[in-house]
Design goal:
Length: 607
């Protein structure tokens, strides 16, 4: 959480920093700030305020600031409320910093260094500037080394010293920093998206390494002071994909991109009609020898894992657990060398998932991660990585990352079946043909977006919404419900339809819209009976059903959306698009900030 940017070079830095902060705002939007200095050095100019980056932009315009070296921050508040004082950058003595992460021992440090009445904010971050200032005696590397060794917790820090003009230093533990040389200087950020407009070559700063950015480029040292080698990576997405492309919100754009990104994720991994992970170096043995699978992930990524569980259990016949990464460590996890751990994460930086993965690896579990952001911490912490090719996902609500994660899980299931010799050629080719058909089917649904918009209209004034289904339909709805609540602020619950009558049906009234999904042939009659139970209590039911088959008493449905037909296990793809669009239209029509829902951040790097 929190977005970080730093630039030094020949150009004026203000607009570079503010433009980047706008791109990074999805990481947190409680406050924003920059610090700028010029060639002469000295105390940098600090501009910061609670609110959005656009407010900071106005402040900068009013203040007429300039400078060719600067750092900027957009905050998701953890320690200390949302106010100007708690906004970053923070300054102490000759040191100015921005911080992403949590300094767990900040209280101890305040006491140890007698800083109780000397700090201006309530944050855990300002203390870092104070400790750096204390240790700083002309050698920035020594000060950084000594400070870092005192810190407990996670941090990505960008640092400016008053008497070292034109240079930005950075160091990190867990929280990410990427850096790059530009035509006229150097840049660093918490995200590749912010540096991609400047260069296609970048690197991930390794943990506990210090980088120094100047007009002449970048140097990197380890904590013992030895020069370290930089491992360069290439940005593999088109920068234009980071803008809204004419859509009012990123969320809509990202929903519409799904056919393409599914294609990009799937097609390079099919060779001669068979799923193929040779480019990732994944040996079949890891898929054939495991006795169990444990998926660890959070939020939407965990919902993708639930679909994966249904697929793998049904098609491969091995047990799959899906564990909320934030709970993993607290339930005495039983994972061992026979348990394949699959970590799923769009950002690749979710700390709960990262910690759970590290724990599982210590227990000897083989691991594969499914990650969207190249070089991210989770990708680097796992034995093998499969990248989803969703491109930058900017809207806080995850859409295309989810369906590309599903696409990888479909491929993995098929490869597992091949590795275990479970399917004959006919079964494999029917499955792969269906997977290849997904983008086209998604396009058919997207072409009907006006119809879906009308469905969303019926929910605009709802206070509560229930979503009911069984089996795979229930997994789809867990994600649909998360989408609706996070962007529309309508309370929504996905419920296994057979479970409703064990208590929750008491909440169903005429005022409660119910979305029912019926896509699984073997569950259809039971699901339709459960739907009747809520209709009898007055609920207005919106039905998403597979195919064109006529239903009894069509008039009793509030709305029916007929989903294009795919094999049952693939119906999650078209159904998800409908649920994503419903959430999107409700939010947009309520006039909400669809891409930046309140209290949230795109990348969750605090436990
Ligand atoms: O980056 P990750 O996939 O690890 O993020 C996990 C969740 O925070 C994320 O999926 C979250 O639930 C979505 N933003 C919801 O739309």
């Amino acid at each position: 959480m929190c977005g970080i940017i730093g630039y030094t070079g020949k150009k004026e830095a203000t607009d570079i920093l503010i433009d980047a902060l706008e791109l990074l705002e999805y990481r947190g939007y409680d406050s924003a700030g920059i610090a700028l200095s010029d060639e002469a050095g000295g105390e940098p100019r600090l501009l910061k305020r609670a609110g959005r980056v656009k407010d900071l932009r106005e402040l900068c315009a009013e203040s007429d600031v300039s400078g060719k070296c600067g750092i900027g921050h957009t905050r998701w508040a953890t320690h200390g409320g949302v106010c100007d004082e708690n906004a970053h950058p923070h300054r102490f003595g000759r040191v100015t910093i921005i911080h992403n992460g949590i300094i767990e021992n900040y209280r101890e440090l305040i006491e140890k260094y007698g800083l109780e009445h000397k700090l201006c904010s309530q944050t855990d971050s300002e203390i870092v500037a104070a400790v750096l200032n204390r240790f700083y005696e002309k050698d920035p590397y020594a000060a950084i080394r000594k400070t870092v060794l005192k810190l407990k917790g996670t941090f990505a820090l960008a640092i400016m010293f008053d008497d070292i003009p034109g240079k930005i230093f950075a160091v990190r533990n867990v929280s990410p920093i990427v850096a790059a040389s530009t035509e006229d200087g150097a840049i660093l950020s918490s995200d590749v998206a912010a540096i991609a407009p400047f260069t296609s070559q970048y690197f991930v700063v390794p943990e506990f390494h210090v980088v120094c950015l100047s007009e002449d480029g970048i140097e990197m040292f380890d904590l013992s002071g030895d020069k370290a080698r930089i491992d360069w990576l290439t940005v593999d997405w088109d920068v234009s994909r980071s803008d809204k492309g004419g859509y009012p919100f990123y969320m809509e754009k990202e929903i519409m991109e799904q056919p393409q990104v599914i294609q990009d994720t799937v097609m390079p991994r099919i060779k001669d009609g068979r799923p193929d992970f040779s480019a990732e170096g994944i040996p079949d043995s890891i898929l054939s020898e495991c006795k169990r699978i444990c998926v660890i992930a959070c939020g939407t990524a965990m919902h993708a894992g639930l679909v994966g569980k249904s697929l793998i259990q049904a098609m491969i016949g091995i047990h799959v657990d899906v564990v909320m990464a934030s709970e993993f460590m607290y339930n005495d996890p039983v994972v061992d060398k026979e348990t394949l751990v699959i970590a799923i994460s769009q950002s690749g930086e979710t700390i709960d998932t990262l910690e759970a993965l590290k724990f599982a690896r210590k227990c000897g579990s083989p691991s594969i991660s499914i990650v969207n952001v190249k070089g991210a911490s989770i990708a680097r912490a796992s034995e093998y990585v499969i990248y989803t090719c969703a491109g930058p996902e900017i809207a806080v609500a995850s859409t295309k990352a989810y369906t590309t994660q599903l696409a990888v899980l479909y491929l993995l299931t098929a490869r597992m079946a091949v590795a275990r010799g479970l399917w004959d050629d006919g079964k494999l080719s029917a499955y792969m043909e269906e997977l290849v058909r997904v983008p086209k089917v998604m396009e058919e649904v997207l072409a009907r977006k006006d119809e879906i918009h009308h469905i969303a209209d019926t929910m605009l004034n709802a206070r509560d919404v229930f979503m009911i289904g069984r089996g795979l339909d229930y997994s789809i709805l867990l994600e649909g419900s998360l989408k609706l609540k996070e962007v529309s602020y309508i309370h929504s619950e996905a419920y296994a339809s057979g479970e409703l009558k064990h208590g929750t049906i008491a909440l169903i009234t005429e005022e409660t819209p119910v979305i029912a999904v019926v896509t699984q042939d073997k569950l259809k009659s039971k699901e339709l009976s459960n739907i009747k139970e809520v209709q009898s209590r007055g609920a207005k039911v919106i039905l998403l059903i597979k195919g064109e088959e006529r239903l009894e008493q069509e008039k009793i449905w509030n709305r029916i959306f007929r989903l294009p037909v795919m094999a049952d296990e693939f119906m999650v793809m078209p159904a998800s698009i409908v649920l994503q669009l419903i959430a999107y239209y409700v939010s947009a029509d309520k006039g909400l900030d669809v891409d930046k829902p309140r209290n949230l951040a795109k990348v969750v790097t605090v436990e």
